[in-house]
Amino acid sequence: MQIEIVPFKSSYLKGVLDVWNEVVIAGKAFPQTEILNENTGYDFFMSQSFTGIALDTTTAEVVGVYILHPNNVGRCSHICNASYAVKSEFRGNGIGKMLVIHCIEKARKLSFRILQFNAVVASNKNALSLYESLGFIRLGIIPGGFLNKDNVYEDIIPHYFIL
């Protein structure tokens, strides 16, 4: 497997939707509840400041995706936010780390000053470990801040990283 992070383009849409919707359907990490289709997905991924695709260049398969966008507007628009997804059968191979590192570099190029995660779900131990290893700072715990698909509330742990 040879992974390269490339910009989103329409020819990757089906693969990106498969990766993204898998996380949405699981209901344990993303706040979104709506499945994206070809129309809504294309608009969504194109509306980001940047959408990065983890592509296995040996098979041309989309194995991961990240979105990067401002976390807020106006006087807080220098703070960005991102979400990451790796196709389940490829997790544990360092693809998530590649996505986060690429995202940090892209955020700097886009002149963002801080990368903030609003809602890292407490049970997402792999993400928490990754963010800690890369130097992200935990901001505390928001009790019951995330409603899992099974209607159980779970804590979230916001993070930030100075770019």
TrEMBL record:
CDD domains: NAT_SF. Keywords: Transferase. InterPro entries: Acyl_CoA_acyltransferase (IPR016181), GNAT_dom (IPR000182), Mito_N-acetyltransferase (IPR052742). One of its GO terms (molecular function) is acyltransferase activity, transferring groups other than amino-acyl groups. SUPFAM superfamilies: Acyl-CoA N-acyltransferases (Nat). Residues 3-158 form the N-acetyltransferase domain. It comes from the Bacteria. Pfam families: Acetyltransf_1 (PF00583). PROSITE patterns: GNAT. The keyword Transferase applies. PANTHER family: ACETYLTRANSFERASE, GNAT FAMILY (PTHR43138), N-ACETYLTRANSFERASE ACA1 (PTHR43138:SF1). This is Acetyltransferase, GNAT family. It comes from Succinatimonas hippei (strain DSM 22608 / JCM 16073 / KCTC 15190 / YIT 12066). The lineage of its organism: Bacteria, Pseudomonadati, Pseudomonadota, Gammaproteobacteria, Aeromonadales.
